[in-house]
Amino acid sequence: MRIAKVVVDVPASQTNRVFDYNIPSKFAGSVHKGMRVIVPFGPRKIMGFVLDLTDESDFDRLKDISDLMDVTPVLTSELLDLGKWLSEQTLSFYISVFQAMLPQVLKAKYKKELHKLTSEELPYQLEEIFAFRDYISYDEFIERDGHHGNLQKAISDGVLEINYLVNSRETVKKESMITVNRESYLVEEELANLSKQAVKQRQLLSHFIKYPEPISQKTLLEQLKTTRASLKPLLEQGILKETKQEVYRNPYREDKYPETKALPLTNQQSEAIEPILSSIKQKVHQVFLLHGVTGSGKTEVYLQSIQEVINKGKEAIVLVPEIALTPQMVERFKGRFGSNVAVLHSALSAGEKFDEWRKIQRKQVKVVVGARSAIFAPFENVGIIIIDEEHETSYKQEEHPRYHARDVAIYRGEKHDCPVILGSATPTLESFARAQKGIYKLLTLSKRMNDAKMPKVNIVDMRDELHKGNRSMFSTKLKEEIELRLKKQEQIVLFLNRRGYSTFVMCRDCGHVIECPHCDIALTYHRKNERLKCHYCAHEKQMPSHCPDCESDTIRYFGTGTQKVEEALSEMIPEARVIRMDVDTTRRKGSHEKLLTQFGRHEADILLGTQMIAKGLDFGKVTLVGVLAADSLLHLPDFRASEKTFQLLTQVSGRAGRHSLPGEVVVQTYTPEHYSVQLASEYNFEQFFKQEMNMRKTFQYPPYYFLTLITVSHPNQVRVVEVTKTIVQLLNKHLSEQARILGPTPSPLTRVKDRYRYQCMVKYKNEPNQRKIIKKILSFYDAEIQKKDLLIQVDLQPYQLM
Ligand SMILES: Nc1ncnc2c1ncn2[C@@H]1O[C@H](COP(=O)(O)OP(=O)(O)OP(=O)(O)O)[C@@H](O)[C@H]1O
Ligand SMILES: [Zn+2]
Ligand SMILES: [Zn+2]
Q1: Which residue's C-alpha comes closest to atom 23 of ligand 1?
Q2: Is the CB of 215 inside a 6 Å radius of any atom of ligand 1?
Q3: What topology does CATH give the domain 456-501+560-694?
């Protein structure tokens, strides 16, 4: 094959296709599908993916491929096909999709350099920056305030040119290895010749006489409690030799996880696993919805299904929501499958992620456990795909390409003729509706392990508390229950939705709320350094002492953040030992793990936290769960608000009474009559499903209707409204009569980072032409979009309606 079909790294409508490049003879036979190459494109050199090889081209005079970035393909041909499909599905550019499938470090970095083309001096202003060098980086030119006009003139005069370089950022970690470089009798001679004072060197040589095999320098120095200085003379004399060896950064060391064996399954578990195993054996694709209450042993069903897949010589992909990818979760997979497991977690460093990914690519592991993007694991013989907590919204990517991992899982499951398991105690309405229709096969685990009871849920009406004169954030009931658990030496989980939920600053005199000057949203108060921060654009400022509006000094922060709860807690029950887990206390790598280990060892009585403690935790001594403000999700401008509240309450309650001790839950709320609060407290998923489905039908939302959300943003408000109006008109004209087009309306977040945001929404049942129409609209605005002023976001499966 002489010609490569390449998708180039220019995300734009006109370049969203393959370009043909000639394979120069020096690369003949080395270019393969799925490899990254460097190609000339206009005046620059850029990265591209080889999609195909051919001998024919409709164009003559093709340019040559400049360089290869890979030795082996980074994308399998299945992933290339998946990418093409996904870019159609999500209306994303090919290049964005392929890049989303790869670890961050494989994204190319571009560098510009200015090269002198003359031996003469450059014009004064330029030579001042060049300082007689032949080339400088473009960044330096900008840093030194270089003038663009001068640059352009020099380029058109032919004395300068811009060169574009493509850099790879991937780094392979190398470790120093020390080896003996002499026959052993010679080493013994050297040892005999060494002076008595050279203690460390004597130890080093004795080590290698006893253990002649290569050893990592780090381990060697640690073992002998010495430093590089004592090693150096031996290296210089050539008695020892230093080599570099590629190693993986290994964030999850196998030896840390005790090995586990398959547990004898309960009757319910056996019934649930049977159809999965037969799908594996018969190699037929089927989607299973595993609806199992919290603590019913879903994970054991996953583990034993995976074992079957491994026995068949195949591979498994397991998706877990980011925040549930806790050390406990990793331990369960590593404990069962040891070094056969790769873990892909966003808390890993870019290098660690790259190494875990390479273990998958090199087929050195059989199982990957990871967050959303692990669905693109480059396995070629997939035998099962599992999505745990399938209701989690983090499976939907909220930037280009806007894909849902569930759709990708099902696509890959079909290609590999293997089962896909969606597991949850609170499945999404979409999935449960499909299971009822028989599109997915429903498997049910209705009982907890050892027949443990679901914890009793007490709903406390916080309005009553206020009337009784209790102004604190703890109801009398919750306070009593906490004290009781402390007395019995049991543990407590306290849950507060969202970090700094509504910790906004308000003037009590005039009601003025301090907002971000660039976004229409209240700033959040951070106590630690007395600062106000915007969570959308990172704008921050000092907490004012007086109201900027009325000068009153009664300006205060409102609402409850985890920090505030922690303070109130230590005032109320000073002897309680509290661990706080939120974004602030878990930012450092490994801190998440450390806090949970401490809690597991009962070094604290209370675990206080946000969303991140709602899932996956399995601690036997936890007998009380307190939900401080159940309403916080209920009032979001989102048609899924009730569903999310139901899910969250069920998940949090599920953390109590999981082993032998019985559990109890206290839910504090201002709307105790709301059906999602009521039904969650009864663990009545079926009734909730019925009721919520009725609502969705009445108000025409998924799963009865499909939604498309188009968000337009621009620094100029007039332009935003204009464009959104035009889009609505075009949609009205080209979509069918049945489609309902709502808008233009301002987005719930109307201004972010000084850009105005408007939206329109399409509700529809069947619009086969919709994608084509939207594509046309997008390419109509392409020029304006390329200038970066106008932004049009299309979400064909919106989860975030803000
Ligand atoms: N067959 C079994 N025999 C004995 N113990 C089991 C068995 N299956 C699971 N368990 C134990 O029961 C507990 C709960 O199981 P697991 O955590 O898998 O439930 P889950 O359904 O995944 O829960 P959640 O959805 O709340 O995370 C765990 O401690 C697990 O080790
Ligand atoms: Zn802001
Ligand atoms: Zn005021």
Answers
A1: 295
A2: no
A3: Rossmann fold (3.40.50)
